[in-house]
Structure formats: C-alpha cells, structure tokens
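User: Assemble these into one structure.

Assistant: Restating your components, then the assembled model:
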Amino acid sequence: MKFINKKDLIVLIILGGIISSFFIFSYVFSDKNVTGANVFIDGVLYMQIGSEGRYEIFDNENEYLQTVIFNNGRIKVIESECKNKVCEHTGWISNSNQKIICLPFKIVVEPIGGKDDSGVDLYTW
Amino acid sequence: MVKSKKISYIAILSALASAVYFFESFIPLPIGLPGARWGFSNFPVLISAISGFGILNTVFIAIIKTFLGSIFSGKLFSPVFFMGLFGAISSAFLMSFLAKKIKNISVLSISEIGAFFSNCVQAVIAGFFILKSDAIIYYFPYMIFFGIITAFLNASIVKISKRSISLNEKF
C-alpha cells in the first residue's frame, strides 16, 4: 500500500513552506539585544521592566502569580503557580520575537529589543 | 447503512475519542508549547469523516470528545479546553466537507489539512480571546509541525484499521 502519493506530497510541501516562512520571519527580523520587557496580564500592560533584576507578578487580588528575572540580556520565568509550568519550561529567551506565555493566568512577557544606539541620528553619504 | 448500526458506530467512535483525549494529555510534548497537545484523539473524527456519516455527526463526535475528555481530566472550561473545542469542531467540519466534495482526495491529505486548520483556529482563539496579544505567532510553526506528525500517524492508523472495519466503501 502506497504511503504518500503525489497529491499528498504537494500538500506536505505547501505546509512545509508555510512553516519555514514563519521560521525565517521570526529569526531574521528579530532584535538580538533585549533591553527590557513588557508584562501584560489579560491584554493590559501591568509592568515595564527596564533594568536587570528579579520581578514578581501579582494579580488583582494581590495573589502571587509568577517571578520573572532579567539577567545578562535574557529573560526567564523562574517560578510560576500554574499547573503545567509551560512558562517555566520555555527557559531563557533572547529573541525579541519570542514571548513567554502563561495561558491559565493570561500573562504575556514580551521582550523589548534594543535599537542600535550608537548615538548617531543620521547618516549622510 | 442501517440507522441503528450508524448510531452505535458513532457512539463507539465518541467513546474512543474521549478516552484517547484523556490519555494523550499525559504524553508531554518535546517542546513546551502553550496550550498544545498531541492530536491523536482526532482519528475517530477522521474515520467518521471518510465514512460518510455526515457533517453533523462528525462535529458531534468532536464536541463529545472535548467535553467528556475534559470532564474526565478535570480541565473543563480551561483555556486549553476552549482551544481544543473550537479547533476540533472546525477540523471536523472541514474534514467531512473535504471528504464529501473533493473527489480522489486521500486520507493523508484530509488529515493534514484538518490538522493545519485546527492549529490555525487554536492560535486565533489563544491570541484573540484568551491572551489578547499576538504572542502565539512565534509558537505557531511549532504547533503546525507537531500537527503534521500527528496527522500522519492518524492517517496511518485509519488506513491500517480500514481493512477490519467494514464501513462505507468510498475509500
């Protein structure tokens, strides 16, 4: 019994093309130096992280949700009270297109990529 | 097919899908993706789609598997439940539509396109309604990748078991 025939191969190639275009987009168009993070809870900006350190996130009833640390230009969720701990397993992020998501608590930690700050505003040739 | 036989087939497929939904939550993904799970519980939906049970019955199996499986695993009305529910319904709808309208389409293509569509709907639900941000876009290619693997395995299961199930002789 034939496993894959020509029409199936076309579908698989199209899907593979979609996947690779997403990968290329998220890795090429990204800022490599992370200078901070925005923390959103339920779509609303909760906290802006600008300097390195350890930050704790609480919800509206002041219950502890999770801890985010920003160290060496990378961001990680160290500890979280959710059940699956997917946010902890995401690990260190240094790609400005990757955001750490905690679905049960609706928390999004979005890194802010630093622009090239060489102090020059305009180049002329 | 006699109506009583059809009803009992649909009941068996629903129970099978619910059981697989419950057990597949214990298998971890290699990469921690938010809200993602292996999609093995879609193979009874695929069987129903290619056997010509009708669009409504296939969607019914998808709804039942999400509700019963979530009740058993204690995650009813969690974000993963909503993503799974709408993903499964849209995938069931699309798979039975494809099986009915497009001639000479193979089981693998139906399964792959259904999985892709299900992942799209899940990403939209997670981005628009739950998180209210576009953060899920980074994880979308990983979701499609695991969906393709699972769809291939689902189609293989259906093809192998088709020999011992005497359903509609369309495939």
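Chain B has a mean pLDDT of 90.
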